[in-house]
Design brief:
alpha+beta; four-stranded mixed β-sheet; 4 strands; globular
């Protein structure tokens, strides 16, 4: 994806990441079900702490105590997917709920 930095910058301008995503991994089921464009904005929201109200407390504690950070997103067709960054922040996986 040669244009990935441009996509990233257009969605994340003015935002400050709260943690590193590490290596990105995408499940085969996610790749087959969702458009690639939907994940850039979701990854930006995930690492900048723009979570659902129901995720705020758990993810805030995960940042503080070095646990996994999990956020829920939908693509343009309302397909639900998760972004999960492991506790040591070396890997972030994007997957469908059935794969979690």
């Amino acid at each position: 994806m040669d244009n990935q930095p441009d996509l990233w910058n257009s969605h994340c301008i003015g935002r400050i990441p709260r943690f590193s995503l590490g290596r990105l991994e995408f499940s085969e089921m996610f790749s087959a079900a969702c458009a690639a464009q939907c994940v850039v904005q979701a990854l930006c929201r995930h690492c900048c702490g723009d979570w659902l109200d129901s995720e705020m407390l758990a993810n805030g504690n995960a940042l503080r105590y070095r646990a996994s950070i999990i956020s829920e997103h939908q693509d343009a067709r309302s397909v639900l997917f998760y972004i999960v960054t492991n506790a040591d922040r070396t890997v972030t996986k994007v997957m469908l709920p059935s794969e979690y």
